[in-house]
Design goal:
The protein is α/β, with parallel strands linked by helices and about 230 residues long. The protein is built from nine helices and nine strands.
């Protein structure tokens, strides 16, 4: 699907059931929806036309993720541990020109900032653009050109490059044009983590989601709620 920029943008959500600290977290319920559906549901508010795919593994333990996606969202299955290969293979199979990477353990992604991130990336012609460092942890995102992902795949052989999709690019800033999104002051809380990685994170996410004034908790609401609970 070509959008207003004349390119195909894929939002690829990595999701799998394996987690040493919180097994099965991507399908745990949060305020009436499983965690993965929070991520997918928020994307319906994006103003930029995108194609959404959940990228899980081919392991039998992730059959349940693929089954959950059926009828809801496209699902791609690839390597469990070589996440970079999973992303490149998914992008190739779907012919994505650009890939926006999300993870299924971040239920509070800021959709307004995602639209701004995509626009910055495409208008400025960056190879890789991110919204990390100012937003709460788990709220920002990153977008790659397919060529940057492919170059990472071909040249990034270290274990961390295969497990963490962005690290080859981040470690080689001389090879890529890298952009960083500036965010409004009201959304700046870089020391606040809203990702779901532990049982305590999960309990906090449930509490925050239940306090949302609208369909989805905003970044501003999350920051204020967390400040009040300190």
């Amino acid at each position: 699907m070509l959008g207003r920029y004349g390119v195909t943008i894929g939002v690829v959500i990595q999701a799998r059931m394996g987690s040493s600290r919180l097994p099965g977290k991507v399908l745990r319920p949060i305020a009436g929806r499983v965690l993965l559906d929070h991520v997918i549901g928020r994307l319906r508010d994006l103003q930029t036309p995108v194609e959404v795919v959940v990228a899980t593994s081919t392991e039998p333990g992730d059959d349940i993720v693929a089954a959950h996606c059926k009828g809801r969202v496209n699902c791609f299955r690839g390597s469990e541990l070589d996440v970079l290969d999973r992303y490149v293979s998914c992008a190739q199979a779907n012919r994505f020109d650009h890939v926006l990477r999300l993870t299924a353990d971040n239920p509070f992604t800021d959709i307004e900032e995602l639209d701004r991130l995509i626009a910055l990336h495409l208008v400025e012609g960056y190879d890789y653009t991110h919204a990390f460092g100012e937003l709460p942890i788990g709220v920002g995102a990153e977008i790659f050109t397919f060529s940057a992902l492919l170059e990472s795949h071909l040249a990034g052989h270290a274990p961390n490059h295969r497990e963490h999709v962005n690290e080859y690019v981040q470690e080689n800033p001389d090879l890529f044009r890298i952009g960083r999104l500036a965010v409004p002051a009201r959304k700046k809380a870089p020391n606040l983590s809203l990702t779901v990685d532990t049982p305590a994170d999960y309990e906090r996410a449930c509490h925050l989601a239940e306090k949302a004034k609208g369909a989805w908790l905003t970044t501003e609401e999350a920051i204020l709620l967390c400040l009040r609970s300190v």
